[in-house]
Design a protein that fits this description.
heterodimer; A: about 120 residues; mainly alpha; about 0% strand; B: about 220 residues; alpha/beta; 8 helices; about 40% helix
Chain lengths: ~120, ~220
Amino acid sequence: MLIQVLLIFGFCFAIWITWKRYGQNAISLKEAILWSILWLGGVSVTLIPKITERLALLFGVGRGVDLILYLAVAIQFFLIFKLFVNNEKLERILTKIVQDGALTGSSQSPKNNTSLTDLDKK
Amino acid sequence: MKVIGIIPAYNEGEKALATAKACLEYVDYIILVDDGSNKDIAQEESQNITYLRHSINRGQGAALRTGTTAALNMGADIIVHLDADGQHDPAQIPELLKPLVDNEIDVVFGSRFMGIEPQGMPKSRRILLWCGRWFNTFAQGIPRTVTDPQSGFRAIRATIADQINFKQDRMAHASEILRLVTRSNLKWQEVPVRVFYTEESLKKGQKNLDALKIAWQLFIGAFTR
């Protein structure tokens, strides 16, 4: 079916991007392997859809599609949580830079200072 | 003994300087940290007041950390944290210092719930702080004996200040400091303090809904290294 061909192309492209990002040192080897397993899982399910039905039975879920949806929601929650944690790390780095500026006296007064709000307007 | 007071201020205008001047009767120096106010806070030439400025707003916790580092660099023996909006009564600073000087206590927290009635505190705030006390006990392991879950009026012995390595930039720092101190080997004590809530401070200060933000910040903070 056409949808299967498109999905397999999509997953292969995702695997290629994953390893390209690994080559650029943007992600670690562990992350590259984990993402590859996820995409390969997608390829397997596309080629043999019955896998999801077997897994669904194993987990006590009615249909294979339901299992995929439940997993997708769980993964999305995890990724959003990870984004919050990463955001907090960035906030702390930003605070450290601002504190160092304050302690060395290099912070500007508001008259000379471009605020983040001003940058937003630009 | 060199006592340095730290006052974080955000858009406080003249008020922060007035609080700083009122404190100078009880401390040797004041470090006024302007936490990225939109307009410069009022300043006055004084040998006993040091002004620091965050280029952008990073929160009260961050400003207190900046002030604490500066106080340690200035050779403080005792560091006092207090609010800029006049909620804390500077005349109570000696009460905070007494256990540090007399009893070898490391950290003294001012408590609003140890007998001195907080003036102008709304009932909703009182209920929320009561809930905060339970939250601190169950979610953070802070002893139930701590009467004020969100005290911002405290005195710290400088020699142990770097052991209180708090990371929260915003309002959650107060709970984090309580957790770090009460769950360590440090000697701590609460003393009753007088707090004034004015219409202005209530308008500008913490809102009741901020309690959810604090809980969320503490939750995310627990997973951030």
